[in-house]
Specification:
The complex is a heterodimer of chains A (110) and B (115). Chain A is an all-beta fold and 110 residues long. Helix content of chain A is 0%, strand content 54%. Chain A is globular, with a radius of gyration of 13 Å. The model of chain A has no long low-confidence stretch (mean pLDDT 93). Chain A binds chain B through residues 4, 31-32, 34, 42-46, 49, 87, 91, 94-103, and chain B through 31, 33, 35, 40-45, 48, 55-56, 58, 90, 92, 94, 97-104, 106-109.
Chain lengths: 110, 115
Amino acid sequence: RKEVEQDPGPFNVPEGATVAFNCTYSNSASQSFFWYRQDCRKEPKLLMSVYSSGNEDGRFTAQLNRASQYISLLIRDSKLSDSATYLCVVNINSGYALNFGKGTSLLVTP
Amino acid sequence: ETGVTQSPTHLIKTRGQQVTLRCSSQSGHNTVSWYQQALGQGPQFIFQYYREEENGRGNFPPRFSGLQFPNYSSELNVNALELDDSALYLCASSPLWEGPTNEQFFGPGTRLTVL
C-alpha cells in the first residue's frame, strides 16, 4: 500500500466551481501535512500547510483528520489559473523526507 | 535572495553511462534533499544531506549517490544508468530545522532522458 494515496483525477470543472480533493496516508506517526501545487513541467511549490484545526488561505481550505488519516483541500470559486496538479504531502519527521502522493490533476475551463 | 538552482536543465544519456546533477541551495539553507519524479508520478525521496553527511535515504539502490559541499551545494550521481532512470530530478533545500512545518523549496529540476 502506498504511503500517500490520492485520486489522480483529472477533475474538469468550470470557472467559479467548488472542487474538493481527498488524500489518505498510511503512517500514523506522520507529523506534518502539506498541499503542494505543480504546474506542467515545473517544480512543486508549497500551496499550504495543513493543521489539525483546519486552516484557510483565501479561496483554499485544508482539513486534517488524524483519526481517519485523511487530508482534504477545498478550492472555492475556481479560476483558470488554478489549473495544475495538486500534490498531497506527508512528512514523518520534521525537516526530513517528504512523502508525495501521485497528484490530482485539475483543469478549470471557461 | 537567490532561489534553488539546478544544472543542467536537460540531459540525454545512454544506458550504462554515468551522470552528475548539480544543485545550489537557497541562501541560508543547509539541508538539501533530492527527489526523482517519473512521468505521471509524485516525487520520490532519494536522499537528504545535512552538514555534508547523508541524513537519510529512500528506497533507491547504491548506484544513486550524492555529495554536499561546505557551501551547502550538492551533487547527485547515478551510475550504470537504466531506462527507468528517465525522470525529472528535483533538488529541494530547507533552512535550519524550525519545527514540523519546515518548508522545502524546490529547484526547477533536471530532466534526464536515458536512451
